[in-house]
Amino acid sequence: MTVVNIGQRIDGQYGELSPQEQRAADFILDHLSDLAVYNASELARLSGVSKATVSRLFRRLGFQDSAEVREHARALRSYGSPVGGPGASAGTPSRLAAHVEAEQENLRRMLVGVEDGRLDEASRLIASARHVLVIGMRNSYPLALHLREQLMQSRDRVTLGPVPGQSIGEDLAELGPRDAVVLFGFRRRAAGFAQLAQAIQRRGVPLVLIADSSARRHSDKATHWLECPIDSVSAFDSYAAAMSLVNLLATGAMGAHVRESRTRIAAITSAYEDLDELEVPW
């Protein structure tokens, strides 16, 4: 699915706009994250142009009216497209306060969603599996990489897939009911995500699915579904709560087999020292 957002439409026609239309367009580009709540009158007042100018600009950009623009902005946010501009207000106290509030709300919602015991169950599954495959593509890749690195501190046979430039089939071929897959699926997922979840299910491999609400339709394929909000008041989705969930999941897996985890941590620390890999902290 390709979505040509209003910012791209403005960029494509900016040189053809009148000075007043450019003034309104500049305001829109700097406040895309707020566009879903403004009507034409408010945009005109805030950008210092007439309502007729705003209406004319919308028509130039392919919208019938401000209601359609607001719906377009809401759709972009739900789809995961970056919505926002380099506005000077990005670092002001009010913006920062709104950012903190949104981050805290994401964290709160994530924790409420896993307090029924599903997080502990997922951690125990990961700790006991023969082999753990962690999968993350696009925006989910950094989260998958971080979880893999944390799990490696307390257990062996944790791999990250797919290897850059490779397909995922090779990673799935050897997995079975004694193994586990942790699949990250945050929005703007790669094509084929549904087929991947189905393939894991068909092989009888226990699946931990970690994603935002847009992936609920895939949750029936998962042994454990961990939902994590990524809502943001800025241009981009926020993965702060998701990183916190990774921390909790890895910590839970470590705590499921404390003695084995401590033995492995000691061995890793010794290897660090032999290889002189880490900076001395004092």
TrEMBL record:
What are the HTH rpiR-type domain coordinates in residue numbering?
4-80
**Could you tell me the Gene Ontology terms of the biological process aspect for this record?**
carbohydrate derivative metabolic process
Q: Which SUPFAM superfamilies match?
A: Homeodomain-like, SIS domain
Alphabetized Gene3D superfamilies for the sequence:
Glucose-6-phosphate isomerase like protein, domain 1, Winged helix-like DNA-binding domain superfamily/Winged helix DNA-binding domain
Q: Does the keyword Transcription regulation apply?
A: yes
GO MF terms, alphabetically ordered? carbohydrate derivative binding; DNA binding; DNA-binding transcription factor activity
UniProt KW keywords: DNA-binding, Transcription, Transcription regulation
- What this protein is called in its record is MurR/RpiR family transcriptional regulator
Source organism of the structure = Cryobacterium melibiosiphilum
Read off the lineage from the record: Bacteria, Bacillati, Actinomycetota, Actinomycetes, Micrococcales
